[in-house]
Amino acid sequence: MITTADRLEGIHEYYFSQKLREIDALNQQGKDILNLGIGSPDLPPHPDVIRVLQEESAKSTVHAYQGYKGSPVLRNAIRDWYARWYGVTLNSDSEILPLIGSKEGIMHLCMTYLNPGDRVLVPNPGYPTYRSAVTLAGGQCVDYTLSAGTDWEPDFDALEQLDPASIKMMWVNYTHMPTGQLPSIALFDRLVAFGKKHGILICHDNPYSFILNKQPLSLLQAEGAMETAVELNSLSKSHNMAGWRVGMLCGAKQRIDEVLRFKSNMDSGMFLPLQLAAATALGLGPDWFNELNKIYAERREHVFALLEALGCEFSREQSGLFAWARIPAGYKDGFALSDEVLHHACVFLTPGGIFGSAGEQYVRVSLCGSIEKFREAARRIQNSRK
Ligand SMILES: Cc1ncc(COP(=O)(O)O)c(C=O)c1O
Questions:
Q1: DSSP state letter for 328
Q2: Which atom of ligand 1 is closest in space to residue 177's alpha carbon?
Q3: Ligand 1 neighbours (beta carbon < 6 A)
Q4: Measured in angstroms, how far is the CA atom of residue 38 from the centroid of ligand 1?
């Protein structure tokens, strides 16, 4: 009999993978579901980025395996990007590791640092991959609860009660997904101090800092961050390149070398033209982000109108690629509201409970859709409630 490894125990098919099957089945019955669930940018990358990929891939010399640490061109572009936008100085030879998307970095960090039973702080609500990567690596998740009452920031007094001396790693993500909470330098300073005090590796996941946010921040801006923290970043959302799979890990040389020991056994580098095109994307100026954010800001107004039609409550100060909203009284949880809207209005919203128990009274709406799509969704929702 063929059996799966014990490490898969407690690991289930990703919620969206399951839900998309249900949506497909409804579509096959002729329902035409509007999917407002998934945060995959629908807009294209900058034309210069596409051009570099096309031109470079037409060359005969670019198709070999690439170095495990990425092309110097890409590493230098990442160094310059961190200096320009975050004011963080990195050594491009030793403190930067290009990744095939930041998601793989989450797994690499867990596999590099966790032994069976090691305790890891994960945000609730938070990106579900932190939990599954920790579990797959044999670690034990210790939730830290975030709430609207504390602006979705960790409660450091509560963290001190969780036996921090026994914690090996902490996952942190600001701009926070799914709540859209922005960070502050004061928060990053506290996280670095907490990591240093207890010898915890603070893993900051930072893919949303450029979306609907005038002042992108990096945790590596905090004094002493390199002693206790690493940061993942990504071109998926900031440059409309989710399908290209380009991300990065930044941190102290020793951390980068340790992760490379694991990662170099997993893949054999990235296609060079793709790295060169990614370097071009990283060199784009403020116009790129201004244009992108103008589009998202307009879309978000339509999403807010849709959420108002549902009777949800939400903050207008959110950032990132989603709108996060508290469901109205009368629904057991966000799953109930999402199911009702799916079956009565043919619109799919993500129930907040998939991000952890502290998200159960919420729903999340993606801004990755046209204005027409949001208008149509609002119209369907209004009609279904008459
Ligand atoms: C919080 C968070 N981290 C990481 C990722 C993965 O990004 P990437 O495309 O760089 O792997 C996502 C994607 O949705 C995300 O929401």
A1: P
A2: 1
A3: 39, 101-103, 127, 173, 177, 205, 207, 234, 236, 242, 247
A4: 11
Residue 55 phi/psi, 5-degree rounding, is -65, -45
Cα–Cα distance for residue pair 232/109, rounded to 1 Å: 10
Q: Is the dihedral of CA 326, 332, 333, 338 positive or negative?
A: negative
Q: Which atom of ligand 1 is nearest to the CA of 205?
A: 3
Question: Ligand 1 centre from 289 Cα, in Å?
Answer: 19
CATH of 47-282, one of 3.40.640.10, 1.20.120.450, 3.90.79.10, 3.30.1360.180: 3.40.640.10
Position of tokens 């991300």? Answer: 247
Residue 235 Cα: closest atom of ligand 1: 10
Write the pLDDT tens digit of every residue in 8-47.
988 888 888 888 899 999 999 999 999 999 899 999 999 9
Cα–Cα distance measured from residue 366 to residue 35, given in angstroms and rounded to the nearest whole number: 9
C-alpha 30 – ligand 1 centre gap (Å)? 32
CATH number of the structural domain 6-44+287-384: 3.90.1150.10
pLDDT in tens, 321-362: 999 999 999 999 999 999 999 999 999 999 999 999 999 999
The pTM for the full model equals: 0.97
Residue showing tokens 């307009």: 298
State in Å: Cα 292 to ligand 1 middle.
18
Distance (Å) from CA 174 to ligand 1 centroid: 12
What ranges do the domains of the chain cover? Answer: 6-44+287-384, 47-282
